[in-house]
Amino acid sequence: MVQRLAGHFSVEESAKRIRHYRYAEERMMRVMGGWIALTPELGAKLLFGRHVWDCAQHADLWGKRLPELRAPAQVSEPPNDAFVRFMDLVESPEGFGQTPQRLVGIYGVLKPHLLATYEHHLAHANQVYEPPTRRILQRVIEDERRHIAAGRAILTHLLRDDGARRRAHAWEERLHALLAEAGGVSGDGLSHLAVPEIPPDAADVAGDLVELEKPVGQWPLPPDLEAALATHALSLARGNLAAVAEDLAPEFRSAGEEFYRSALATGFERHAVVGAAKIGSHRQIKLRLESRQGAVVLLSRWAQRDGRWRVVEAEVVRTEPA
Amino acid sequence: MDRPIAYDKLAREDRFVRMRARRVVELKLEQGLPPFPDLASRESIKERVHGIMVGELQAMEGAGRTVYDFPDAPWEFAMDMARQVWDESRHVEIYIRLLEHLDGYVGEFPETTILWRCACAEDAAARVAGVNRGLEGLACDVFNQLVHIARKIGDPILEHAVDFVLADEITHVRMGSKWLNALTEGDPERRKRAIEFQESIDERFNLGGMRREGEHEDVPISIATEARRLAGFTEEEIARLIKTTQRSSVY
Ligand SMILES: [Fe+2]
Ligand SMILES: [Fe+2]
Q: CATH class for domain B15-245?
């Protein structure tokens, strides 16, 4: 059966493709590594942490295959300048609030494209003389499927409102356009390949989903502090400085009044306790206050004074525009 | 992305309360409490576990930055650091689960970032010396003691989980020793600076006399001599560490 020996890729073409794959995998692994510290959401942070090592292994497997194809080991090479620009764009969202864009770039665009390309390559790689390449393709395909399913789960969790979903979609379109311009990771116009179906509930995906940020219904706080906080938050929301002043410890009274006067320039429509940490018997309470102008996150330390919980220290830790 | 990033870019969900370590210590001393959680009660073990959990988080973030910050370092270096990212991500999960096991929650105690600051060193050799040898050496001390205490109080869940983390940390220290040597080969000046950085970290993490040679029950943090040997610290290095802990000021 001579046709069993028919092939699509020459040795040189194979090595070149593999250098392009390695470029994408290596750069992706470095970018995800760099993003971990910049990503606030624990679920997404840990997802990158889980996948950096897999991507590094993919780059390494490709890099080790190269000398078997008469090429120097561990060399990455982009297919063209447009693909470099595509990767630059994938890397660019590094802001505190840009986790959805980071996830879209990797799990919505790059990995699905790699998966489709790897599947296409596997379908065309010769079964008689290319099994070393085929083995690597099978391994990376399996990982990419798992990664995409996990990434989609976290993304769905983070895209809670229409505005966020619209922004994510627009970002995805921009990336797809640049990817098409580059002709995909191999540079030969395969960016249009359909992404295979991926079941969202594959059993091994669970290991990558360590934590999905859950809204905390009730913080484990002493009941009298809970009650004091409810009154305090309401006074803050109404901009009722006189009532807020009642909650301040004597030693913090004058500095505190000054602080809340400037922090409460506008009223707030919604408020919630978003963090509660202990230092001995003191409690560090984070309050998120939202208005049409945006949100303010206040951190205040509460301690018992004369049998009552009072604020002994307060600061603004973050402001967000609407 | 900047290489390296400013240390204050470290991103957290709102449920984390970040504070300066010095301030936390002050507030505890004002209340007549020990500056660092001892391991005498379940509550203090929980606080220690929370501190370790955020330490693991920062270790993962630091190793991730190292993967990004040094694209021109040898490929095997990037591989080791990427592997470490994965290990630390499992450690974070382990300590989140242990925290739940101890009826705690993420954010229950303030987070301090001295560990992360060390992970922001600009030279790769200094970073592996400081983080992998200095901080992960401290992790070996802390985990070794925690395994012992868990065994003593009869908590096999805590004991087994932490023992696996300890095995990983010993591997990370070895990586640190390997890359400290490889990256500074033929550059004694760079090696000297990296080692000085590590020693400054060792000194800082003697925590004002908290880390000492002694029985697990008798000292706040005991030095894990055997684990340190396994991790590739020389007898001379271990002896020097013990000596520096003896002259650290006590709070
Ligand atoms: Fe760790
Ligand atoms: Fe480690």
A: mainly alpha
